[in-house]
Specification:
The protein is of the alpha/beta class. It has three domains: about 45-155 and about 200-360, Response regulator (Rossmann fold, 3-Layer(aba) Sandwich); about 160-195, no CATH class; about 385-540, Glucose Oxidase, domain 1 (3-Layer(bba) Sandwich), CATH 3.50.30.80. Helices cover about 35% and strands about 10% of the residues. The chain has helices spanning about 15, 20-30, 40, 65-80, 100-115, 130-145, 170-180, 185-195, 205-220, 235-250, 255-260, 260-275, 280-290, 300-305, 320-325, 330-340, 355-360, 405-410, 425-430, 470-475, 535-540, 555-560; strands spanning about 50-55, 80-85, 120-125, 145-150, 160, 165, 385, 395-400, 415-425, 445-450, 480-485, 495-500, 515-520, 525-530. The chain has a five-stranded mixed β-sheet with strand order 11-10-9-13-14. It has a four-stranded parallel β-sheet with strand order 2-1-3-4, sandwiched between helices. A three-stranded antiparallel β-sheet has the order 7-8-12, with helices on one face. The longest helix has 20 residues, at about 235-250. The radius of gyration is 24 Å and the shape is globular. It starts with 12 loop residues before the first helix and ends in a 26-residue tail after the last helix. It binds FE2/S2 (inorganic) cluster and magnesium ion (MG). The site of magnesium ion has 6 residues, from loops. FE2/S2 (inorganic) cluster binds near residues 61, 129, 202 and 208. This is Dihydroxy-acid dehydratase family protein.
Length: about 575
């Protein structure tokens, strides 16, 4: 069986309208016409548009999609399509233990299986919370039927005592105040809840806003929709327009492979720096690229993104939240500032059917305090550095959150030599961080290991470790931290993270011991343990791969199949499956 669109037919017609096989056609038809659809519409030759529903009570960041569904379906029907909503495996960033990252590849798998195995011609991807956006884009790339992303949008701005209260950022700040004894438990909880005032995903430039800006920058959504706050009327309208547009895309056969080109990924990297995007963007973007058959590496983030300025004044790198970003023009305004500076590939095709340049031309910043002009940025050279050394082959550092205080306190000519204190995971960290015998002071770098994809499992957002209470009391808000896990996109901590390979598979981090001297050199892009070669080799020889305990079958499958964060944390075997909609499944 070949490419069904090449015959002028939609793939769903092989289920519902296949004269060569009346028996199977009847079997498919009778059940789908029993409630929601009529036989006539299923046999009308109109495209069937799947809507991948990520929202539910379990997944509150995406629950807005439950309410957007009417508008998506109305748009699809008005444009002559037949909508079919279906659930995908839920992901809630903050609710899923041991970590939501474990489930990104599971949601990816579930989407691939649904899109491949059911009569779906094109799909609306309802995105939002951190992992849902990359998971669905990865799945759409593997299957390669026409696909469009619709973000649920950020929550309204939170407020606490007259100040903006941002998702994540408010909790990191408040737990420091709690540790310092400046607020009590009750105020801590009230402050946390103030940052979450409505439906929607995180209102800071955390991983959710980052990944949806990236989906738009890649060209996988309609322009201008990523930043619309969830409760706004414009969000309902974007849902309707997205529904209309995906039907046209089905007829045009405009597929992810037409949009997810090398140029699109380079655009996304540039946009990621300009918005102050999350350190989770590199693994997710590399994963999307690999499933799309595009060769992208973490190093590309430094090559294309490091010298880009930070334009968006949004927490955690800046001051504002999602409502201001939207009113200032959102992603198109940022992209137009970058386009005028010659930093974008203007000719990249997008879901709108127009190029990047055609989508954004003339749409500049509407509030230059929130979205800065290219030549008056928040910060120059605001991208990620990719470090290497004897502790790892690569790790990532987000430079846009390194405060002046941090630079002055720790860096001498870009270098910092310090004593390592090593934790074996978050439980060990919580247990021992205030242990005075560790001797943690401002000449210390905190390390955490066994928290990568295989180790945790799933890679945990724990590298942004808070200093001990005694150090906080001295006014030191951050110590440098290093780990083989990730950190929250809402954290302002200048961590070195996503270290690849991780400790449990034998990365150099596994050999480090508390008390070792380490040297961070930002100019050279290195972090090294200053340990004699012979001693390092002896530790390597003595190292044994740890026994890992799985708590669920998926944890075991995941650990056996997952790659490293530097390569996207993909289900490695899945990257060999490319554009699988070219072949129909068996009847
Ligand atoms: Fe879901 Fe931030 S926790 S978007
Ligand atoms: Mg997160």
């Amino acid at each position: 069986m070949g490419d069904t669109r090449a015959n002028g037919r939609f793939r769903s017609q092989e289920w519902f309208d296949n004269p060569n096989n009346p028996g199977m056609t009847a079997l498919y038809l009778e059940r789908y016409q029993n409630q929601t659809f009529t036989r006539e519409e299923l046999q009308s030759g109109r495209p069937i548009i799947g809507i991948a529903q990520t929202g539910s009570d379990l997944a509150p960041c995406n629950k807005i999609h439950v309410f957007l569904m009417d508008r998506i379906k109305a748009g699809i029907r008005d444009a002559g399509g037949v909508p079919m909503e279906f659930p995908v495996h839920p992901i809630q960033e903050t609710g899923k233990r041991p970590t939501a990252a474990l489930d990104r590849n599971l949601q990816y798998l579930s989407l691939v299986e649904v899109l491949h195995g059911y009569p779906i011609d094109a799909v609306v991807l309802t995105t939002g919370c951190d992992k849902t956006t990359p998971a669905l884009l990865m799945g759409a790339a593997t299957v390669d039927i026409p696909a469009i992303a619709l973000n649920g949008g950020p929550m309204l701005d939170g407020w606490w005592q007259g100040k903006r209260s941002g998702s994540g950022s408010m909790i990191w700040e408040s737990r420091r105040l709690l540790a310092e004894g400046k607020i009590d438990y009750e105020e801590f909880m009230q402050r946390a809840c103030s940052s979450s005032p409505s439906l929607g995903h995180c209102n800071t430039m955390g991983t959710a806003s980052t990944m949806n800006a990236i989906a738009e920058a890649l060209g996988m959504s309609l322009p201008g929709q990523a930043a619309i706050p969830a409760p706004f009327r414009e969000r309902m309208q974007a849902a309707y327009e997205t529904g209309r547009r995906i039907v046209e895309m089905a007829h045009e056969d405009l597929k992810p492979s037409d949009i997810l080109t090398r140029e699109a990924f380079e655009n996304a990297i540039v946009v990621n720096t300009a918005i102050g995007g999350s350190t989770n963007a590199p693994p997710h973007l590399v994963a999307i690229a690999r499933h799309a058959g595009v060769d992208l590496t973490t190093q590309d983030f430094q090559t294309y993104g490091y010298d880009v300025p930070l334009l968006v004044n949004m927490q955690p790198a800046g001051e504002y939240l999602g409502e201001s970003f939207f009113r200032a023009g959102g992603v198109p305004a940022v992209m137009e500032e970058l386009r005028r500076a010659g930093r974008l590939h203007e000719g990249a095709m997008t879901a709108s059917g127009r190029t990047v340049g055609e989508n954004i031309s003339g749409l500049g910043s509407l509030d230059t305090d929130v979205i800065r002009p290219f030549d008056q940025p928040m910060r120059e050279r605001a991208g990620f550095l990719v470090l290497s050394g004897n502790l790892f082959d690569e790790a990532l550092m987000k430079t846009s959150v390194i405060s002046d205080d941090f630079r002055q306190r720790f860096l001498r000519n870009g270098k910092f030599e310090a004593r390592a204190v090593v934790f074996e995971g978050p439980e060990d960290y919580h247990h021992r961080i205030n242990d005075e015998s560790l001797g943690i002071d401002e000449h210390t770098i905190l390390f955490i290991r066994n928290v990568g994809c295989v180790g945790y499992p799933g890679s945990a957002e724990v590298v942004n470790m808070q200093p001990p209470d005694a150090v906080l009391m001295e006014g030191i808000r951050h110590l440098p931290t290093v780990g083989d896990g990730r950190q929250s996109g809402t954290s302002e901590s200048p961590s070195i993270l996503n270290a690849t390979p991780e400790a449990v598979v034998g990365g150099g981090l596994a050999l480090l011991q508390t008390g070792d001297r380490v040297c961070l050199d930002l100019e050279a892009g290195t972090l090294n343990a200053l340990v004699e070669d012979a001693e390092w080799q002896a530790r390597r020889a003595a190292w044994q791969r740890p026994e890992l305990t799985h708590q669920t079958p998926w944890q075991e499958i995941y650990r056996q199949t997952v790659g490293q964060l530097g390569r996207g944390g993909c289900l490695e075997l899945a990257t060999a499956y490319q554009r699988i909609s070219k072949e129909l499944p068996r009847d």
